[in-house]
Specification:
Length: 240
């Protein structure tokens, strides 16, 4: 019995030490990666210090969760680097009353962060395994119950939850699909990384309040993101 008690004690100590270490890594991520990148929205930095990023990557990659780089979490899929994610979220200017659609929700980290900023969040993911992982991770982190995980084609959006005040595309696209544009509310914003000739740019689309179908586009800064399936045209090699 004594040996069992000691084992339980050691396990609890190890878990407590892991929690402290992860908290320190989150703090360092914000202080050394996010804040120096002109991210001044304290709601975003507070959310990123709170959400345990290591729970939203494959277990074998937990030690890499706070690296200042994109993390490949599935074939052809990656988590956006913390500094780029924070800058894009700041560009989205999410309000506490906003309904937000995340396109390319992957394992749910961005949804967890956005849930700290918005009223409701729909996280759309085309890969059923990633959707399942997101559901488990979000439940484990006890994030707000306002998050809905939806599985389906990314280009089709999630019309049942719309219209959305903000559509956040968590990855690179070529052209904005019409179905996504149609799900944006009046005076809403779409934020994404668009690629052209290998160059990625943070792009802000805004819908006029007076002209419901009109979208204005503005390139804001250079950014890096992995292409999302079905949203970037496949370039076929030229053959003579």
């Amino acid at each position: 019995m004594r040996h069992s008690d000691e084992s339980i004690s050691q396990t609890r100590w190890r878990k407590r030490a892991e929690m402290v270490d992860a908290a320190l890594q989150r703090k360092n991520m914000v202080e050394s990666q996010v804040r120096p990148s002109d991210v001044t929205d304290r709601r975003i930095t507070a959310a990123m210090r709170k959400i345990p990023r290591e729970l939203f990557v494959p277990p074998a990659m937990a030690d890499l969760a706070y690296m200042d780089t994109e993390l490949v979490i599935a074939p052809g899929r990656a988590m956006t680097a913390p500094r780029d994610l924070a800058r894009l979220l700041q560009l989205a200017d999410i309000a506490s009353t906003d309904r937000v659609l995340i396109v390319g929700g992957a394992r749910g980290y961005t949804a967890a962060v956005v849930a700290e900023l918005a009223q409701t969040v729909v996280s759309l993911e085309s890969d059923p395994d990633l959707s399942a992982a997101a559901t488990l991770a979000l439940a484990e982190t006890m994030t707000p119950a306002s998050i809905t995980v939806v599985n389906g084609p990314l280009a089709a959006g999630a019309p049942d939850g719309g219209p959305y005040d903000v559509i956040f595309i968590d990855g690179a696209i070529g052209e904005l699909p019409d179905p996504l544009a149609s799900q944006l509310a009046s005076a809403g914003r779409i934020v994404c990384v668009t690629t052209d000739g290998g160059v990625g740019r943070a792009t802000l689309y805004t819908k006029s309040q007076s002209a419901a179908s009109a979208l204005a586009r503005r390139f804001v800064f250079e950014a890096s993101a992995v292409a999302l399936p079905g949203l970037v045209p496949i370039v076929k090699p030229f053959r003579f």
